[in-house]
UniProtKB/TrEMBL annotation:
Entry keyword annotation includes Coiled coil: yes
Annotated source species: Fontibacillus panacisegetis
Pfam family, one: Com_YlbF
UniProt keyword annotations, A-Z: Coiled coil
Name assigned to this protein: Cell fate regulator YmcA, YheA/YmcA/DUF963 family (Controls sporulation, competence, biofilm development)
Presence of the UniProt keyword Coiled coil in the record: yes
InterPro entries according to UniProt: Bact_com_dev_regulator (IPR052767), Com_YlbF (IPR010368), YheA/YmcA-like_dom_sf (IPR023378)
Coiled coil regions, renumbered to chain: 52-101
Entry superkingdom: Bacteria
């Protein structure tokens, strides 16, 4: 029906508008997604992450280590441009030592753990949504892509 004309409706001078898909996304779905995001924002995982993040920002030794690592990473870029492999190797070893010290601080470990907990939580939510939707799609289309449904089975 009108689907073939949709692409032409949303282009200017033949340049596709890549955000044209956004026009067909239902606002109620976006609203629910935002509500879900806010709910996740109150979860224990996010609360723990925010606490750890705040403590890290105020932890002098951690901040000093992070600054030193960033500085040395910039030095590596400079020495690489001069193709000075010895200095690059030396600085990389220094970065490894700083990184080891950083990783050895319990607060950093807690922070990294809370980051991976949040990632796990988000992946879980996405897979629940994906599985629930694909169950519905498979049942309704008889395991065929939506485009071909209608003539078959």
């Amino acid at each position: 029906m009108g689907e073939q004309h949709q692409h032409q409706d949303h282009t200017d001078c033949g340049i596709p508008k890549y955000d044209s898909r956004d026009l067909v996304i239902r606002e109620d779905i976006i609203k629910k997604a935002k509500e879900l995001a806010e709910l996740i924002g109150t979860s224990e995982e996010v609360v723990q992450f925010q606490k750890a993040e705040k403590l890290i920002k105020n932890h002098e030794r951690i901040q000093a280590l992070i600054s030193a690592i960033k500085k040395k990473q910039k030095e590596i870029v400079a020495f690489e441009s001069f193709q000075n492999k010895n200095m690059v190797d030396k600085i990389e070893r220094e970065i490894d030592e700083l990184q080891d010290e950083l990783d050895g601080i319990p607060l950093v470990t807690e922070f990294q753990q809370s980051q991976s907990d949040i990632n796990y939580l988000l992946q879980l939510v996405v897979s629940v949504i994906r599985d629930t939707v694909s169950d519905k799609v498979n049942v309704e289309t008889g395991n065929e892509p939506a485009v071909t449904s209608g003539y078959g089975e």
